[in-house]
């Protein structure tokens, strides 16, 4: 099975691109923050050490959560798409354990290669981050950047372990299916209670952070960011976990207009959203994370900037540092979420080539298939932006109250449309572009009818 | 053009590949199949029977020659144009059923009408499912049905748009003997009792025996016909064709 795993890797390298991209980027970001800890551990003045440790653990901590999340969801998707292959292996006599080992070996090898390639990238990004801290005078000028065991350890440990855990969990699901069942495997439609509980716990944690911001940090200046900044990250991650429920809810509302005005395409869209909410959730998660985190942090930052301006105080270097840091972290997370989004959509839609072929053989024109995909991704984008914005309120409202004693933030009106626009354009472009490419295969070939 | 001719092929040729490395899959096939008939197309593997079906059904484009369904030539336009032509005139039954996994049995049956923007007569579609013996399975999804049941849904779907012609591509290839017999009997009934026209590609002599006529294909050409076939007669003819093909391959012609 190990041999088969390595063969598969060699001959179907393209199939592992998504896993590779997620682990590579994740490891790069984690190593960059890890290198700050390396630098702090190398014997620097106490103030520098405190700053570096704080930045690495707070900002790096968030990245860790998101990276683990993203690597796990990419791998889950990648394994799920190979149900047929697994079923085939099972039907020719592979034991569940053997299939499981094959998947795990593949994932760990890909993750390991990605992490090794990520070392120079993590070094570069870490240096960049460090320079930002030096330029904003948070770190003494004489301190040299170091990239050592902590950086590599965290990068390798988290991504490879994350990949290992994610595949172990996914393969357990496959092992439970009997071979004949696996061939016709239908997605379970109910979410596990663990996922629901974790989702709600994270949403509650977000709300709690928001509440603490108002109660503890009112009139405490930018200190309120400590709790407010986390609130939208927790809330976004929680809502992302609850994605299947959100999709079913939104679909229930949109079902009537979609079928009435969307024709056959709208009808198929509703059927897919309803009966495949688990798979659709894979694409919804990064949209919620992207919107929630970037919106929360950017609005919080502009509220802070306005408050400082209104107070007539010249922003101290500390405030400028925090601003830089906020922007860097948001930039990284947003980039990561955007790549995840495109990754997931391309994989999910390429996988549906056969389904598109079946629809075309049943009488769907390529245009009807494209409109179906378009309507689906529009629903996903709108749902993601809606709940992402909701999650961002967990940061925005408490911070605005704490900092300005008002309810509505005084922030540039353009932030929301800009972020929502990026989310919608990315989602639509990735799905429709991939669908277009998938439709280039003749329908007969897509369903495996060959002359 | 005669509208009572459900299918008409005129010197259809299909060549795959490039100029210096080409394979002639169909070498000038001319066929006329009247409405209300059940025809089986047989031939050794590589004889071009799948290509014939795909060209005749508008799923593939012939290199030369014309194909007409119910007196109307298949348009040469975009995939959308051909699809619109096809969904109004042709029903399909495939070896792998090709039902959409997210739709129930009844929704699968109504889908072609929906895609064509035609009025959906739910009662009639439900009636078709009852007719194929699935009156109590209408709300089941494909994964909850056996292979034989899925193929019966596919037959009801093919009948739903009242097409001029139904193409069946190895419809019993993935089924056990009993389900296969049920499926073939349903196709035969559609022809005899409702005046449907069915063209079936198969390699199974027992399946071909359900047809009114068998057309034999070898090396991309029609090489014979057998009216009112029996399984034994078809099997004998097939053995003969296979021997001939082997002999020709040996001489290298």
Rounded average pLDDT of chain A: 83
Largest sheet of chain A: none
Strand content of chain A: under 5%
| Number of E strands of chain A | 0
**Distance linking N and C termini of chain B:** 37 Å
The percent of residues in helical segments of chain B reads 25-40%
Biggest protein-protein interface? A-B, 32 and 35 residues
CA-based shape of chain A? globular
- What is the count of DSSP helices of chain B, taking H or I runs of 4+ residues? 8
Mean pLDDT of chain B: 89
What pattern of helices and strands is seen along the backbone of chain A? HHHHHHHHHHHHHHHHH
Radius of gyration of chain B: 18 Å
N-to-C CA distance of chain A: 34 Å
Strand order of the largest sheet of chain B: 6-7-8-3-9-10
Give me some keywords for this one:
heterodimer; A: 451 residues; mainly alpha; globular; B: 253 residues; alpha/beta; 4-stranded antiparallel β-sheet; 10 strands; 26% strand
What does this structure look like?
The complex is a heterodimer of chains A (451) and B (253). Chain A is an all-alpha fold and 451 residues long. Chain A has helices spanning 2-11, 17-41, 46-80, 83-91, 96-135, 149-176, 179-183, 193-217, 225-241, 243-261, 263-275, 277-310, 317-351, 353-361, 366-404, 415-438, 443-446. In chain A, 52% of the residues are buried. In chain B, helix 6 (177-194) links the parallel strand 7 (165-169) and strand 8. Helices cover 38% and strands 26% of the residues of chain B. Chain B contains 8 helices and 10 strands. The termini of chain B are far apart. In chain B, helix 3 (105-115) packs parallel to helix 5, helix 4 crosses helix 5 and helix 5 packs parallel to helix 6. Chain B has helices spanning 49-56, 79-89, 105-115, 122-131, 147-160, 177-194, 205-208, 231-251, and strands at 5-18, 21-34, 38-42, 64-69, 72-73, 90-93, 165-169, 198-201, 213-218, 221-227. Chain B is an alpha/beta fold. Chains A and B meet through helix 11, helix 14 and helix 15 of A and helix 1, helix 2 and helix 3 of B.
């Amino acid at each position: 099975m190990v041999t088969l795993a390595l063969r598969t890797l060699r001959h179907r390298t393209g199939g592992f691109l998504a896993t590779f991209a997620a682990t590579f980027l994740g490891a790069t970001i984690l190593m960059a923050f890890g290198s700050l800890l390396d630098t702090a551990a190398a014997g620097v003045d106490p103030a520098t050490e405190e700053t570096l440790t704080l930045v690495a653990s707070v900002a790096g901590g968030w990245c860790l959560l998101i990276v683990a999340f993203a690597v796990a969801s990419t791998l889950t998707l990648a394994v799920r798409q190979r149900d047929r292959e697994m079923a085939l292996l099972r039907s020719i006599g592979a034991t569940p354990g053997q299939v499981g080992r094959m998947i795990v070996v593949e994932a760990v090898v890909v993750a390991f290669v990605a992490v090794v390639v990520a070392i120079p990238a993590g070094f570069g990004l870490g240096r960049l981050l460090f320079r930002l801290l030096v330029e904003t005078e948070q770190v003494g000028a004489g301190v040299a950047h170091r990239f050592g065991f902590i950086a590599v350890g965290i990068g390798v440990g988290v991504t490879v372990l994350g990949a290992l855990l994610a595949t172990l969990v996914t393969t357990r699901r496959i092992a439970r299916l009997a071979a004949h069942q696996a061939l016709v495997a239908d997605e379970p439609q109910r979410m596990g209670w663990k996922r629901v509980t974790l989702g709600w716990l994270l949403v509650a944690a977000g709300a709690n952070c928001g509440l603490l911001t108002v109660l503890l940090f009112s009139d405490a200046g930018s200190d309120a960011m400590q709790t407010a900044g986390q609130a939208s990250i927790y809330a976004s991650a929680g809502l992302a976990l609850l994605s299947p429920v959100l999709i079913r809810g939104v679909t229930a509302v949109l079902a009537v207009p979609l079928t009435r005005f969307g024709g056959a395409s709208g009808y198929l869209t509703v059927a897919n959203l309803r009966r495949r909410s688990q798979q659709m959730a894979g694409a919804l998660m990064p949209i919620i994370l992207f919107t929630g985190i970037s919106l929360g942090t950017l609005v919080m930052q502009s509220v802070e900037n306005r408050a400082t301006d209104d107070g007539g105080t010249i922003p101290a270097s500390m405030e400028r540092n925090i601003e830089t840091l906020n922007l860097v972290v948001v930039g990284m997370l947003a980039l990561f979420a955007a790549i995840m989004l495109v990754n997931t959509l391309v994989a999910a839609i390429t996988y549906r080539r056969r389904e598109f072929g079946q629809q075309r053989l049943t009488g769907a024109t390529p245009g009807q298939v494209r409109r179906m995909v378009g309507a689906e991704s529009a629903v996903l984008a709108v749902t993601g932006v809606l709940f992402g914005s909701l999650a961002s309120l967990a940061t925005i409202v408490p911070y605005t109250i704490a900092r300005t004693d008002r309810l509505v933030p005084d922030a540039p009106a353009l932030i929301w449309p800009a972020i929502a626009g990026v989310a919608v354009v990315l989602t639509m472009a990735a799905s429709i572009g991939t669908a277009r490419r998938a439709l280039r295969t003749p329908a007969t070939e897509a369903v495996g009818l060959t002359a | 053009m005669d509208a009572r001719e459900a299918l008409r092929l005129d010197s259809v040729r299909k060549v795959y590949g490039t100029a210096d490395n080409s394979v002639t899959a169909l070498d000038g096939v001319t066929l006329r199949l009247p409405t209300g008939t059940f025809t089986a197309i047989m031939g050794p593997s590589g004889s071009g029977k799948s290509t014939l079906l795909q060209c005749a059904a508008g799923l593939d484009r012939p290199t030369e020659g014309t194909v007409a369904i119910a007196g109307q030539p298949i348009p040469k336009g975009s995939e959308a144009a051909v699809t619109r032509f096809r969904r109004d005139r042709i029903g399909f039954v495939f070896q792998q059923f090709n039902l959409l996994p997210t739709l129930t049995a009844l929704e699968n049956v109504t889908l072609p009408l929906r895609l064509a923007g035609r009025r959906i007569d739910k009662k009639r579609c439900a009636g078709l499912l009852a007719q194929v013996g699935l009156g109590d399975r209408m709300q089941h999804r494909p994964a909850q049905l056996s292979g034989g049941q899925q193929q019966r849904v596919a037959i009801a779907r093919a009948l739903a748009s009242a097409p001029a012609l139904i193409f069946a591509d190895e419809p019993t290839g993935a089924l056990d003997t009993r389900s296969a017999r049920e499926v073939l009997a349903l196709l035969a009934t559609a022809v005899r009792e409702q005046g449907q026209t069915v063209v079936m590609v198969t390699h199974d002599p027992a399946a071909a025996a359900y047809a009114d006529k068998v057309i034999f294909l070898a090396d991309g050409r029609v090489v014979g016909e057998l009216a009112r076939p029996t399984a034994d007669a078809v099997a004998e003819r097939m053995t003969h064709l296979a021997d001939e093909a082997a002999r020709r391959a040996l001489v290298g012609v």
